[in-house]
Amino acid sequence: MQKSTRKHPSTEAQAEIAVAPKVPIAALVAGALGASGFSLSIVGGLLSHNPVSDIFYRATVALATCAMAGYAVGLVFEWLVRMESARIEKAATEIILAESPQIGLALSEVESENVQASAQQRDIVVDRAAPTISKKSGR
What we know:
139 residues; mainly alpha
């Protein structure tokens, strides 16, 4: 009897999720709401026959206000996505452990995938932080 080397379907799905590009939800929501606030303010100002300088001033204020509000909403969305991802990962791990005849092997596979995913996240965080780090010249 041969042992199957094929991974469990939920393990494959976890691997696909781990390599999927991470989208900055907060920035996308902030941009979308800011652009919407700006355009609505322009249209409203034009329909009410306001002077152009007032229209653009109010549109810029609306852009900034809506972008800040959108960023806050986006941060909440990111938090919700992280919570749901953690819940799904925990449930998938429990399913793998329950269905696996070799519990130790399944546990080590899940742990190695978690280590790989966290290493990728750490690399992303380091890459984002790299431009802000300044090197001091040594003598």
